[in-house]
Target: Precorrin-4 C11-methyltransferase
Amino acid sequence: MGGCGLKGLVWIVGAGPGDPDLITVKGLRLLSEAHLVVYAGSLINRELLHRCPEGCEVLDSSKMTLAEQVRVMADRALKGLNVVRLHTGDPSLYGAIGEQIRELKALGVECRIVPGVSSLQGAAAALGIEYTVPGGTQTLVCTRLPGRTPVPSKEDLRVYASTGATLALFLSSDMGDEISRLCMEGGLPGDTPAAWVYRATWPDQRVGTAKLRELGQRMKAEHVNRQALIIVGRCVEESGTSLLYDPRFSHMYRKAHDEGPEGGMG
Ligand code: SAH
Model:
């Protein structure tokens, strides 16, 4: 597949956040050549599945145990068939791919990963913002609140809030109140801007902003308690002014007019 025709190979493909046009060209090609596709039921846009060839076996992973998924993928891959495991967004964020890769490897099956557009990028596009703020924070933290999956105690949200970095919260859509409380305990002012993006890049995408102290209340009023990314930080309101286009700032494509301050490439 993809010109390599290797036996015993599974492609882990990032499907993008929702809009089916946001899968990569490579991901789409692999999908169009697949004999078996296992996809994450709740968050993958089914329109993508129309790109599978006729006769392709298509299985919803949400109805299967990990062992069942691994068994069927390994079986087809070892027969030399083209196998795609489709993950929402980018597989590197909360994708739980490690266990699949390990178990497939134990059966003699290698995995290769095709990156995807994460809901992280989908949400920034929906909000029209830049997470890193010229002249402001240069850091983005991707995290979540503990749910059934614990979060290490050293990664308490208060610790990150205390830095003033942009915070992107996955898997925490129903915990707006808790996010406000912890961020404020960490030292962020209650009027810090925050936003949520529900189903970024889907046709029913919804976006809202609130002061940090009102985040939970506002999300409840808008009935947003799932499939949302929450962003906390000044980036929601401020875009800053980049040094990149400052005439005093030189970079590899342009010479400075004057001696400029240090900066970064966008
Ligand atoms: N690998 C995925 C994240 C999987 S975890 C990615 O890169 O996007 C699932 C969480 O991701 C959800 O609880 C939600 O917080 C976020 N998420 C996934 N798709 C989303 C979308 N289209 N819009 C907003 N948030 C989304």
